[in-house]
Amino acid sequence: MCKPAGAMCNLACDYCYYLEKKSLYRGAGRPMMMDDSTLERFVRSYIECQTTPSVMFTWHGGEPLMRPVSFYRKALQMQRKYAGGRHIENSIQTNGTLLTDEWCRFLHDNGFLVGISIDGTQAMHDRFRHDARGGSSFGQVMRGIEMLQRHNVEFNVMATVNSANADEPAAFYHFFREAGCHYIQFTPIVERYSSDGKLLHYGSEETGELAAFSVRPEQWGDFLCGVYDEWIKEDVGTYFVQMFDSTLANWVGVEPGVCSLARQCGHAAVMEHNGDVYSCDHFVFPEYKLGNIHHSTLIEMMFSSKQKDFASIKEGKLTRQCRECQWLFACHGECPRNRFATSKDGEKGHNYLCAGYRKFFKHAAPTMDYMKNEYANNRPPANVMRWLKESGNKQQNH
């Protein structure tokens, strides 16, 4: 992911793990904005290191719309210059509040996939997602979504699951469904702070204190089960929930679309505005800096021993409880950043959300098994909806 405005953002969300990254670059003597030479070096290097005919650029933040449309026009010019016959695609993750007609026309005309950050209903969203003065951002985000729809821009929604919305899974899901959002992603918020108020990361010796906005394991499990029950009834194949699609992928033995549920990680690095490259978006700490694009190539950094060591954490440092779990195939220990709990055997480094995931996998297993069988026999997994209805009718008749 490329961060052309670094950690700069027009909002001040309580749970944002990236706003504090400004401290890494304070005193650098210039704004946290990517210059043209860094942009060109990144575009050329990123395209050259790809081995597939299609290349996807992901623009992230902070808030990437802090840069003007002209910046991205320049990026597209450079992509065309260095494409070398490859097909180039672009996606951008935004809070949606800065969208205008000009932006939407540009995004549509150039085939951008847009990710919109929104946490559900206004009460859910505004609890933690607000501007620097604590004001509501919900209306601006909804206005942005309506503009994207009016300009026929392809988009999906990215929601966090936190202490403010985790207890209302049905209302959460119905909000997005009624808003016409057919592609839904959500991720659990779990953050710890040190005694001096700094974010803690994987491997930190200090236990720290769990942030009040973090979702609890039991909440996470109940939330997943609640949303799944709404989705599985009549929305399979028409509304796409990344968590469930990725779970089914693991069930049938193919690579999931979300790295947290994959067997291995280490391929989703980020580049800051000045060319600094880090192992992962959630590991932008000095310990996980791989180098700078002005001094090393992306290939050198991504295939370095440091990045290989980082990638080995996912599979190589599972607790015994994890290794012996019947659901290991479905989550692979989830993201290392959440591995700060203690297993039932007293082993450190267990995933904090484990109990929630186990509850969800057990709950979803019968329907996942059915969809796996349909997939194996070249039939649509969406047949599960008819199967559920028929099963329900049989139970009622008896």
Structural account:
The mean pLDDT is 95. This protein has helices at 36-48, 69-82, 101-109, 122-128, 138-150, 169-178, 217-234, 242-252, 298-302, 305-316, 320-323, 328-331, 354-376, 384-397, and strands at residues 54-59, 87-94, 113-117, 155-161, 183-188, 192-193, 209-210, 240-241, 270-271, 276-278, 289-292, 341-342, 348-350. Helix 6 (169-178) packs across helix 7, helix 7 (217-234) packs parallel to helix 13 (354-376) and helix 8 packs across helix 13. The protein is α/β, with parallel strands linked by helices and 398 residues long. Helix 6 links the parallel strand 4 and strand 5. The radius of gyration is 21 Å and the shape is globular.
Please state the CA-atom Rg, rounded to the nearest Å: 21 Å
Q: Give the spatial strand order of the biggest sheet.
A: 1-2-3-4-5-8
Kindly estimate the percentage of residues that lie in beta strands according to DSSP. Answer: 5-15%
Cα end-to-end separation: 55 Å
Which series of helices and strands comes N to C? HEHEHEHHEHEEEHEHEEEHHHHEEHH
How would a crystallographer describe the biggest sheet? 6 strands, parallel
Report the principal-axis shape.
globular
Average pLDDT score: 95
